[in-house]
Amino acid sequence: MAKLIDGKMISQQIKDELKEKVAALKETGKEIGMAVIQVGNDPASSVYVGNKKKACEYIGIRSESYELPEETTQDELLSLIEKLNADEKIHGILVQLPVPKHIDEDTIIKAISPKKDVDGFHPQSVGALSIGQPGFVSCTPAGVIQLLKRTGIEIEGKECVVIGRSNIVGKPMSLLLLRENGTVTITHSKTKDLKEVCKRADILVVAIGRPKMIDASYVKEGAVVIDVGIHRDENNKLCGDVDFDSVEPIASSITPVPGGVGPMTIAMLMYNCVEAATMFD
Length: 281
Ligand code: GUN
Prior knowledge:
Distance between the termini: 48 Å
Largest sheet: 6 strands, parallel
Bound molecules: guanine
Order of helices and strands: EHEHEHEHHHEHEHEEEEHEH
Low-confidence stretches: none
Strand order of the largest sheet: 1-11-8-7-5-6
Number of strands: 11
């Protein structure tokens, strides 16, 4: 029986710590502002954006919401970002991804000032992480590190295997585990003998994007298993990239879906926003 890593509880802890910090900053006359931009009305994006705005409200961060029509041009979006980059009342800028096809995602990410890049997607933020300099870290992998640390799971010296090499999760996840002195292997869809490599892991982070792909045959007895995936299964129930029922009996600790990694992303976004307001002002 694995110990469940409770992301709901840990994310709440982080949000409560931030709420206190934001209240103390308010006492000194400082208010934190975040701009949340959505282009088009993809329903999943609307849910994420709504949750981000709710979290801001809970913590005491003023959020400015920009709900732009699908037809918004790249230049219009770039002018808005430019205006927000120059706005002293705005400390964090978030453009919800994906953006419509006629807008180039990389151009948008690069347009956001690295000082306000609370998603941690700007090449400067990614570069800073890779050479161990201060900068914003992508929220989901940062959340995974918090889950491990706050559950008392040691990373130093451990065999850490990351499945997935995306810019948002897999790559920054690997760099963060390395920064914590883990011995890190990055695997992906072309990895040979994936099962054998995964079975080496003391800490297995799964971000492959395939429902329930990782079953007990990929997992060493006693491993810590972190599931970054979120999908709907054949019964319309939420599930992860890990086959929970198969893996849970042999893991030492495991994140559930929902209630594991998911809630951490927004908590870390809020953390980055508070950092943005305190680091650069
Ligand atoms: N779309 C899916 N995840 C994310 C995220 O973490 N940030 C942004 N901006 N868009 C996303």
